[in-house]
Amino acid sequence: MARRTELPKYTVPSLTVEDGAAVAAVLQKRLNALNDLALTLKHIHWNVTGPHFIAVHEMIDPQVDAVRAMVDAIAERIATLGVAPVGTPGALVADRTWDDYSIGRAGAIEHLGALDEVYVGVIEDHRKAADDTEDLDTVTNDLLIGHLHELELFHWFVRAHLESAGGELSTHGATTEKAAARSAGKAAKQAEDR
């Protein structure tokens, strides 16, 4: 995505147009990440298989709806700051710093293992965005903190499927979606074989 060189003609009261543009740039990255997350969640919803299918299938749709609402709130905040939000697929792909979701049709636990990694990345970047806006714009900061509450809750829902009775995550030590999916699947298979 081309960098914006023009400042907005206006922004919200008490912010300079420079600060409004800076906050909008932070939000644009979150808009891209959340649009990608909503699509990834829907992909998982369609491609999950196995004995945990219905539980995961039905758990994912409310997350999709909530993330889509976050996308809308962020886009509207960008517009409020006097900048045009960009929600096109090409702009998202051109600007993203992460790879496309790498798991196709797979078991529910494998998808949840991969989704654990996805949520880690989204939440870490959302926290950084909240930190970056804390001194610039309290309204945007509050918006991002509210999103973090929901994102961390959804992440807990995912991790509850991956956690042992002793509190260990089956994805512990994995750093990629595929490794987390393999690790979660292996742990689930071992539990079934007992």
TrEMBL record:
PROSITE patterns the record matches: DPS_1 (PS00818), DPS_2 (PS00819)
Annotated GO MF terms: DNA binding; ferric iron binding; oxidoreductase activity, acting on metal ions
Keyword DNA-binding: yes
InterPro entries: DPS_DNA-bd, DPS_DNA-bd_CS, Ferritin-like, Ferritin-like_SF, Ferritin_DPS_dom
Domain Ferritin/DPS per the UniProt entry, residue ranges: 25-163
A Pfam family recorded for this sequence: Ferritin
Swiss-Prot/TrEMBL keywords: DNA-binding
Domain of life: Bacteria
Positions of transmembrane segments: none
Keyword Glycoprotein found: no
Annotated Gene3D superfamilies: 1.20.1260.10
Region described as Disordered: spans on this chain: 169-194
Family: Belongs to the Dps family.
Protein name (record): DNA starvation/stationary phase protection protein
Organism of origin: Cellulomonas hominis
Classification of source organism: Bacteria, Bacillati, Actinomycetota, Actinomycetes, Micrococcales
